[in-house]
Amino acid sequence: MLPTTTRVISRKMRLIDIGVNLTDGMFRGEYRGKRAHADDFGSVMERARKAGVERMIITGGSLSESIEALSLAESDPHLYTTVGCHPTRCGEFDNDEQGPDHYYDQLRDLIKSHSLAKKIVAIGECGLDYDRTHFCPIDVQKKYFLRQFDLAEETGLPMFLHSRNTGNDFNDMIKANRTKFKHGVVHSFTGTVQEMQDLVSMDLHIGINGCSMKTEENVEVVKAIPANRLVLETDAPWCDIRPTHASYQYWKNCSSDLKELYTPEGKKKEKFEMGLMVKSRNEPCTMGQVLHIVAAIRGVDANELAEQVWENTCNVFFP
């Protein structure tokens, strides 16, 4: 039976968004290179802090993006970042004018030159993506996924991992290189219960966001993740939770107070109003929505889940 309401908590939950793409132009009012509205990055950050999101880890998807993310993280005590190369962009290694070793060295040097600042908390986003091989062929993805295991081993950082429709290839590469890194999160997980269990058996954590809860099968996976292996994220500006998703039934009857805090009023970008959310552009403030839905799916108290997820997240990224 679904809960009809969610109790408003007496204290604000502590939340950490482990995956948010704050370097995306959408947060500056640009969509596919065209300006649609004013830069409202400050409002996005204000809503996140109001919603109890105490830390956010910006996803680095390439060398240039990692540099930009690090600069942003250094400007705000709430922000941290990953450094790495997304599987769909691994062609950048080969396209480097001085060769792939130079690209690798720049990633490594970026990490080592900022180690004292503790702003870089993981290697990634890296892995395999067979849904988008038109961006980067499989052999190139595999080659430079392997290099990023070396980067994790060399720096001692955990791994922020990506897998889409890879058959056994992703798991096989993890198994073969598992001794090279201590902790890892397979983020935005959309696989089966068996795939999740295989990853957990390798001592990995599972990252859940709106895209992880679209279908009833996804919901069953969320129920089955061991409590000490669960971490949460938004993957904003993507992966918002929509009324068509299987998970939405766990949110639609939540209290108006929770909805106002975690999914405040928004308007379409064409009718942008400063201080309001932009519809269909996900934000880190929705972390509380993800948390409450996951708690309802699992039939547990939201406060207790928040503390468990906080502990799990700190064990991986903030030891």
Question: How are the SSEs ordered, and which strands pair?
Answer:
Layout: E1 15-20, E2 30-31, E3 34-35, H1 41-50, E4 53-58, H2 63-73, E5 79-83, H3 91-95, H4 100-112, E6 120-129, H5 138-155, E7 159-164, H6 169-177, E8 184-186, H7 193-201, E9 205-208, H8 216-224, E10 230-232, H9 256-262, E11 266-267, E12 277-278, H10 287-298, H11 302-317
Helix pairs in contact: 4-5
Keywords: Hydrolase, Metal-binding, Nuclease
Family: Belongs to the metallo-dependent hydrolases superfamily. TatD-type hydrolase family.
GO cellular component, one term: cytosol
Average pLDDT number: 95
Radius of gyration: 19 Å
CATH structural fold name: TIM Barrel
Q: How large a portion of the residues is in β-strands, by DSSP E?
A: 15-25%
Give the helix proportion (percent range).
Answer: 25-40%
C-alpha geometry: globular
**Count of the separate structural domains:** 1
List keywords for this structure.
TIM Barrel, Metal_Hydrolase, two-stranded antiparallel sheet, metal ion binding, 3'-5'-DNA exonuclease activity, disordered N terminus, 37% helix, eight-stranded parallel β-sheet, 319 residues, alpha/beta
Q: Could you explain how this protein is built, in words?
A:
One of its GO terms (molecular function) is metal ion binding. Belongs to the metallo-dependent hydrolases superfamily. TatD-type hydrolase family. A divalent metal cation 1 binds at residues 125, 235. Mean pLDDT is 95; it is low at 1-10. It is globular and about 55 Å long. Helices cover 37% and strands 16% of the residues. The protein is built from 11 helices and 12 strands. α4 packs parallel to α5. The protein starts with 14 loop residues before the first strand and ends with a helix. α8 (216-224) links the parallel β9 and β10 (230-232). The protein has one domain: Metal-dependent hydrolases (TIM Barrel), CATH 3.20.20.140. The protein has helices at residues 41-50, 63-73, 91-95, 100-112, 138-155, 169-177, 193-201, 216-224, 256-262, 287-298, 302-317; strands at 15-20, 30-31, 34-35, 53-58, 79-83, 120-129, 159-164, 184-186, 205-208, 230-232, 266-267, 277-278. It is of the alpha/beta class. The strands form 3 sheets. Strands 1-4-5-6-7-8-9-10 form an 8-stranded parallel beta sheet. Strands 2-3 form a two-stranded antiparallel ribbon.
